[in-house]
Each structure stands twice: as structure tokens, then as C-alpha cells.
């Protein structure tokens, strides 16, 4: 078995976590890009969403995560019972997660579905791989919002497509690897082709943002629909 060695050291993140809503049961936040969701094993990767929030909400625990480079909405439980109830909603796929992204190139179709199983690939860590044999089922919907030209370095303008992405499943790196399979990687994605085109090498961040989160509040049983405008 291939041993996984994680050499990633996160650069300092000076952006603050925005607390959008809080009550005695849960907290809704806007995570900045460039911040880990959970602290890593390496002491240099101590800073994270959880590390910061536990100082304010001592018993809080993460229900789900966003990739290091992804910004946007996260729901955080303030006790174990709420965590269990929210985790059940995630596992039953009743939580709706909607993202916005800028993809490299102008998509041919206005909408579609990407169906491709995703597997861990220890030999290429931290990359995941597409594998119908060993992978777990993964399905994502995309819808074009607009096709435009994005200025990059040296006066170059890159054709990009702003899309709304809705994952049915919640696999690691799902949207990033699915967009690569589609042939239009997310701009700024270092793992799945988003920095390969001329002028994209210095893209400052992964242009993926968790813009909507819909779930049922475990205590009140009311439907919660949160929105966060894309910062790009």
C-alpha cells in the first residue's frame, strides 16, 4: 500500500471568517479562500475554520468541509446532537449545496450533468481520480450563467464561463475533477488543470464559491436558505 505523505503547508490567511447567522444550536459562516476547514496534522497547519471558531464557540464541530481554496457558506454545529442531526441531512442528500465557478473556456452547452465515479489515488495524493471500478458514484449538475472574457496577466483576456454547480453527492474534489472531465477546468485549480492555459498560472485563488446552502434547522424544523454573493 502506498504511504500518503502530506507536504502541504498553508500560507497565512489574513482574511476573517464572516459570521452570517448564529443561535444556540448552530453557526452559519462565510469561509474565506485560503483557509483550511480543519487543522492539519502538521503544527504549521494549525489555523483553520474550526481552530478559529472554537475560541468563540467552545463546543462547535464541523458538519462538512470546503476545500482550502474554496470560499463560501458552511454550517457549523454548536453541540453533538445538532451535529448528528445535520450530518444525517448531509448523508441523506437532503441538503442543497449550490456553487458558482469560473471555468476555463466557453462551454458548448448551456446545462448538463456530469456522472463520473471518484476514487482516492494514493500515488497521486492529494489528487483524486476518476474510476468506475473502484470509485464512489458522483453526480454534478451545471448551468451556464454567462460567457465572458476574464483579464489575466500581460493584457491577455481568457474566455471563461460563469456557471452554477449543484453536486448531488459530496465526494472530495468532486466539482473540481468533474469540471476537468467536462473539458473546462475551474480557473485557478492547481490540481485539475485550472492553471495550464497561458496567463492562468498566477491566478490568485481557486474560483469556486459556495453560494447557497439549503437545509432544515434541526431545532426549529424550519427551512433555512442561505445565500452568499460570489466574490469574483
From TrEMBL:
Give the GO biological process terms: enzyme-directed rRNA pseudouridine synthesis
Give its E.C. classification number: 5.4.99.28
Record keywords: Isomerase
> From the Swiss-Prot or TrEMBL record, what is one GO molecular function term?
RNA binding
Q: Where is the Pseudouridine synthase RsuA/RluA-like domain?
A: 25-180
Gene3D superfamilies in UniProt: Pseudouridine synthase
Domain of life of the native organism: Bacteria
Q: What is this protein called?
A: Ribosomal large subunit pseudouridine synthase A
Lineage of the organism: Bacteria, Pseudomonadati, Pseudomonadota, Gammaproteobacteria, Enterobacterales
Amino acid at each position: 500500500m502506498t504511504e500518503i505523505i502530506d507536504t502541504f503547508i498553508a500560507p497565512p490567511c489574513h482574511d476573517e471568517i464572516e459570521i452570517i447567522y448564529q443561535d444556540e444550536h448552530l453557526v452559519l459562516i462565510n469561509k474565506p479562500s485560503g483557509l483550511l476547514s480543519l487543522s492539519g496534522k502538521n503544527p504549521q497547519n494549525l489555523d483553520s475554520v474550526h481552530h478559529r471558531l472554537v475560541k468563540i464557540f467552545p463546543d462547535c464541530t464541523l458538519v462538512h468541509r470546503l476545500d482550502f481554496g474554496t470560499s463560501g457558506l458552511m454550517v457549523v454545529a454548536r453541540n453533538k446532537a445538532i451535529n448528528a442531526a445535520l450530518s444525517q441531512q448531509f448523508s441523506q442528500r437532503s441538503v442543497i449545496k449550490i456553487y458558482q465557478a469560473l471555468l476555463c473556456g466557453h462551454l458548448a452547452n448551456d446545462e448538463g450533468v456530469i456522472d463520473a465515479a471518484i476514487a482516492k489515488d494514493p500515488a497521486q495524493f492529494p489528487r483524486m481520480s476518476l474510476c468506475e471500478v473502484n470509485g464512489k458514484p458522483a453526480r454534478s449538475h451545471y448551468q451556464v450563467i454567462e460567457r465572458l472574457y476574464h483579464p489575466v496577466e500581460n493584457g491577455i483576456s481568457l474566455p471563461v464561463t460563469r456557471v452554477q454547480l449543484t453536486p448531488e453527492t459530496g465526494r472530495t474534489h468532486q466539482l473540481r475533477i468533474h469540471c476537468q472531465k467536462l473539458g473546462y477546468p475551474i480557473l485557478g485549480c492547481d490540481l485539475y488543470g485550472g492553471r495550464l492555459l497561458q496567463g492562468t498560472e498566477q491566478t490568485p485563488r481557486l474560483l469556486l464559491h459556495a453560494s447557497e446552502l439549503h437545509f432544515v434547522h434541526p431545532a426549529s424544523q424550519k427551512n433555512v436558505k442561505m445565500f452568499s454573493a460570489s466574490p469574483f
